[in-house]
Amino acid sequence: MIYKIAIGGDHAGFELKEKIKKLLDERGHLIEDYGPYTDKAVDYPDFVHPVATAIEKNEFDFGILICGSGNGVAMTANKHQGIRAAVCWNEMLAKLARSHNDANILCLAGRFIDYELAKEIVHIFLSTGFDGGRHATRINKIPCA
Hints:
single chain; about 140 residues; alpha/beta; Ribose 5-phosphate Isomerase B, Chain: A; 5-stranded parallel beta sheet; 6 helices; about 15% strand; globular
């Protein structure tokens, strides 16, 4: 399946973001890069909020955010009511993030996982569906508003 994907992060995730963009493009996905566009130090919220907003507005199917640890981008994205951003550092976490949590943004740790692992995580995240059922009940309890 071909998806529309919003991607962003910070300087620590820049190198991995560029590689992931190329991979997604090669697989036929439509990508919008929200930055940063260099590895110069930046503040990740400046790039995360636009990605999360675009996902909330259903302009994209999924988002991918990459910073040094994955935590900063996830914390920022999850401030948005319609976002379920998951930090995934292995294949099983990516599978569970989608199948149990219906995650709509994948967050990666650019300083801690290599490209080969990131490639597998992205593939599993994008190819795994949401199981629904008891998990849907839980997902519906997440929003505060």
